[in-house]
Structures are given as structure tokens and as C-alpha cells.
Amino acid sequence: MPEAAARDAAVRAAFRSQAKSCAALGSPFVAMLCDLAAERLTAAQPVGRHLLGWTGDPSSSADSVPLRFAGSLHALVLDGADSALSQVYPPHATDPDGLWIAVERACRDHAEAILERLASPPQTNEVRRSAALLPGFLTLAKRFAMPLCLSEVGASAGLNLLWDRYAYRLGDFAWGDPESPVLLAPAWTGGRPPDASLILRERAGCDLRPVDPAHPDDAQRLLSYLWADQADRIERTRAALHLAALSGLKVEAADAVDWLERRLAVIRPGCVHVIVHTIAWQYLPSAARERGDALIEEAGRAATEAAPLARLSLEGDGQAPGAALTLQMWPTGERHEIGRADFHGRSVDWRGWPGLS
Length: 357
Fold this sequence. Notes:
About 40% of the residues lie in helices and about 20% in strands. The chain has twelve helices and twelve strands.
């Protein structure tokens, strides 16, 4: 197959695959948009030509071209830059032909803005993942009876570093600030999380392109990558961004592994140092993942009961359903899959740490 034809086919396949993922994750609108792009994109306009000639890997596990495209269009709606496009976006009803006519017009009228957005990878900060992380933090508090110090890789705007500012309903277990504007209540299966006193001493995060929740353009950009027909998700993220802006928390702009090396070089006696990442590790280059894993293992070997280390992650593992919630603790190095969760945190299947309740 000629190179140009192979690129075209790979992009269309990426849009079809993303459509299936969106449908499974409760976004029929973006699923329709991606299916339409797979079928109807042409190289007649600069945007279509750029997309169909994509030189990297357009799939969701790499460059995420479909989500770049969906985010660039949603940004035009959120900014009020294209009234015709807004009229075929939620909450308005639409049909495939009407949607695609508006999309093609937007690609022509806003080509420069869309092409600029396509140059950047999509960035989300799904706050509902905190509902999967909280039981892991409670497990660590139960096991060590120490405050936690957090280091999050791929923290984006830091919304999942502020998990203690939210309200939770995990089955019949309630936790957090009942007055919080952010309520996380996933579909919950499994037993209750551990009941433990939880103190957070320190929190820090890094991202290659951190989002400043206090900056309106940054906040709007983050919201644009959310799916337009998921109004509850958008409003929940708005509320979390507001809390983050009030907190003054700043995520550091840094390479993940270089930053992690600096964080691991500091011993924190009397505190459980928790390395956290959610749907982020998989996007690091393989060499960076290997180096990061080696750094964590090396720090784990130096951990003690007085200065323990833990790694709490929610990452895709190729298994269904959802992603694996995994916890590893040092000084023992013991590791378990303590649950599984939907990629957006809509559901959590809690399994817990063996022998700890």
C-alpha cells in the first residue's frame, strides 16, 4: 500500500476505534462525530488534508488524533466562535448530515485555529478517578498509620491531587467534605474501603504541559477535551477547577521521569511517600517508563518502616473491564491489584488489599 494511502487508512481506523470507545463510555454524540469523520473526511480542505496525512501514530494510545479533532471543534462551541456549529452540538438535537455540514463549514472557516489545536495532544483531568484512588489512600493510612506525601506524574491541572476537597459516596461508605461542590459517587461493587484516619502532609505534581486552573484560557482548553454530550462531567470539572484555582496549587512543568528522580531523592521520615499516576504512564515513551520503573524500584529498596514508599496507579492493562487499580508498598515490595475502575471513574470494583480491612 502506498504511504499516503496507508496514512489515510490508519487515521480512519483511529476514528472508528475512538467512536467505539466513546459509545462504550457514554458519549453517543462524539461517537457519531468520529464515525462521520472516518467516513467523510476528505483532503479537499487543509484540515482534512492534515488529518488524513498524519505522519505519526493517530491511535488513541499514541497521538489521539480523533480526540484532538473533537477537542478543537468543541473549543469553537465553548468559545462561541461558531454559532452554526453550536446549533448542532448538545444540548441541541442533530442528525449526521446536519452535523457534518456544520463540521465541514467550521473546518473551512476556522482552519487556522483548528490546525493550531491539532498540533497539541489532548489533555483531560478526569476528577472522578479520585473515587478509585481514595480507597488506595485509605489502605495506606490503615497499613502505616502515617500522613501521606503525594507525587503525581501527569497531573495536568492537579484536580486529582485535591481529592481531599471532594465528597464521596462509595457504596454505603461516605467520606470527605459534605459541602463540597464536587460529589463523586461511582457505581460501586465490592466491600467497604478501609476506615482510617487520613492526613495529607504534602502534595505535588508534574506535567509536560500543566494547566493553570486559575487561567481562564487554560481552564477552557481543558474543558474542550471533555465530550460535549456529557454535561455532568463538564460541570463537575468546572467545579473542581474552581476549587483548584482557590487552592493555589501549581503543577510543575517538567519531564515526568526527571521530576520523579528529584522527588525520590528526598527521604520523608514519618510519611508515606505515594507515587500516583492515572492513565498517564502508558503515554510515556517505553524508555522513559523503564527508567521510571527502575527509579521507583531503587527507591523502594531503600524504603523503611519509618519512611515507606508506595505506588498507586490506575492504568489500562489490556484487560476488561476498565483499568487496573494497583498498589505496591515498600519496604516489602508487595504488589496487588486492589480493584478495577472505568477509565472515567464512573464505576469502581473494589477488591482491597489482602488481609487488610
